[in-house]
Design goal:
Layout (H helix, E strand, L loop, with lengths): L2 E3 L10 E12 L16 E9 L5 E3 L1 E3 L1 H5 L10 H17 L8 E4 L7 H7 L3 E5 L2 H9 L4 E3 L4 H11 L4 E5 L8 H12 L4 E7 L1 H6 L12 E2 L2 H10 L3 E8 L5 E7 L9 H10 L11 H18 L5 E4 L3 H10 L9 E2 L17 E2 L1 H7 L3 E4 L5 H7 L9 E4 L5 E3 L4
Parallel strand pairs: 6-7, 6-9, 7-8, 9-10, 14-15, 14-17, 15-16, 17-18
Antiparallel strand pairs: 1-5, 2-3, 3-4, 4-11, 10-13, 12-13, 18-19
Helix pairs in contact: 5-6
């Protein structure tokens, strides 16, 4: 794999001259290592996020090969019950809002294992998933969700329109960060929706990332970090006008943006989000200063704690990409954390990239009887605390490191 240095904004061509967060050189966060390759060093690439001086879109200044990242993917959405409930509620809401029926057509881009579209399948609403990872798409197809294996852009949108017509609803949830050619991707969304369809986007909110010190959501497969200020510019450049915004708790604070040409309907939180971004100066370059030093303090705190605990039974839970960013940026290894548990069989038996911590089953973690467990996917810490309730019986503790090192309580 290779990484290309980027000096001009991928959207508008402006200079990437506004510093935001430099995490050094790290391995790809989702490149889990088979045990037979334990002795082979991971390729590492710069992980440095900057803002464009012109449009203020935050993005990485290096692009790792997207084909290598996404063609065989280890993330399956269906392993989080919280996420399944979120998807079901979303589908029910948009079905009512846009009066979707058996005469409608819904397309989801980056549809993963069909966790969301299965709700439309159950309701008898025609749908199609577009998913670049063949191993993940196979699971969706096996579960009855129509899926085509492809990277999405204008060309793929044209093929779908030629075969099926325009979509009433085009869903791009938690994918807009993942596409290096954002103009081709958003141009494809607009072409697929056509003159009357709606584009629905969910993306972690840059404002929440800054406020919550969520630097561990910066990794190579996230090329972009979205403010509404930047997203509205990109959408408008392709004929899509933001018509409604909803604030979500997911991923530590996300935006759900509906856009169409022309806009219509209730604007929701649109004015409030714009006001909050103006107040925190995300529409000015100085709004991005000072984040990097704060990240350094968090990493120092985690290093100090784990090094002091060396020789004790320390484990982690959730072999998530954000956890790999955290561990590698802090220089944590298997000498500090003995194992990390994950429910996903595709990750079990492998090693985390960089840190080389072995991934085990939740049952193996409990059998280890750890004194402390570091919850890496802090956004679902309450769900995980419920799964690990047994640790409380021997006096073990649950911790999270973001936004600062803290104890996670067990549910009553």
């Amino acid at each position: 794999m290779t990484a290309q240095r980027i000096t001009a904004c991928r959207f508008c061509g402006g200079s990437l001259s506004v510093p935001f967060c430099d995490l050094g050189a790290t391995p790809l966060a989702n490149s889990y290592v088979p045990p037979e390759h334990a002795g082979t060093p991971d390729p590492s690439f710069p992980l440095n996020a900057k803002a464009c001086e012109r449009c203020l879109l935050v993005q990485l200044d290096h692009t790792a090969d997207a084909t290598g990242i996404f063609s065989d993917y280890a993330y399956f959405s269906s392993f989080s019950s919280t996420w399944l409930a979120h998807a079901a509620a979303y589908c029910a809401g948009v079905t009512e809002r846009f009066a979707l029926s058996q005469k409608s057509f819904v397309v989801e881009i980056a549809s993963n294992d069909g966790y969301l579209l299965k709700n439309f399948v159950s309701a008898g609403i025609p749908c199609l998933g577009v998913e670049p990872a063949a191993n993940v798409a196979e699971t969706a197809i096996a579960n009855g969700v129509p899926t085509r294996v492809a990277f999405f852009g204008r060309a793929e949108a044209a093929r779908i329109v030629a075969e099926r017509g325009h979509a009433n609803l085009v869903i791009a949830n938690n994918v807009l960060a993942h596409v290096p050619d954002v103009n081709d991707f958003v141009g494809g969304l607009a072409a697929l929706a056509g003159p009357t369809g709606v584009v629905s986007i969910e993306a972690p909110h840059l404002l929440s990332l800054i406020a919550g010190m969520q630097f561990d959501t910066i990794y190579h497969e996230h090329f972009f970090y979205w403010s509404l200020h930047a997203m509205a510019q990109v959408l408008a450049a392709h004929g899509l006008i933001v018509m409604r915004v909803e604030r979500l708790a997911t991923h530590g604070g996300s935006l759900r943006v509906f856009a169409s040409a022309p806009p219509h309907g209730d604007p929701g939180d649109l004015a409030a989000v714009r006001a909050s971004e103006t107040e925190t100066r995300l529409d000015h370059a100085d709004g991005y200063a000072g984040f990097g030093p704060k990240v350094g303090a968090v990493l120092d705190g985690l290093r100090t704690h784990l090094h002091a605990m060396r020789g004790r039974r320390i484990a982690a839970y959730g072999a998530a990409a954000k956890g790999n960013t955290l561990l590698n940026a802090a220089g944590i290894t298997a000498a500090d954390i003995a194992m990390v548990a994950d429910r996903n069989p595709a990750k079990q038996g492998r090693l985390l990239p960089g840190s080389r911590i072995p991934v085990v089953t939740p049952e193996a973690l409990l059998a280890f009887r750890p004194e402390e467990v570091l919850i890496l996917p802090w956004n679902i810490a309450e769900e995980i605390a419920g799964e690990l309730r047994a640790i409380d019986t021997w006096g073990g503790k649950l911790l999270a490191a973001v936004p600062q090192l803290r104890t996670i309580p067990f549910p009553k």
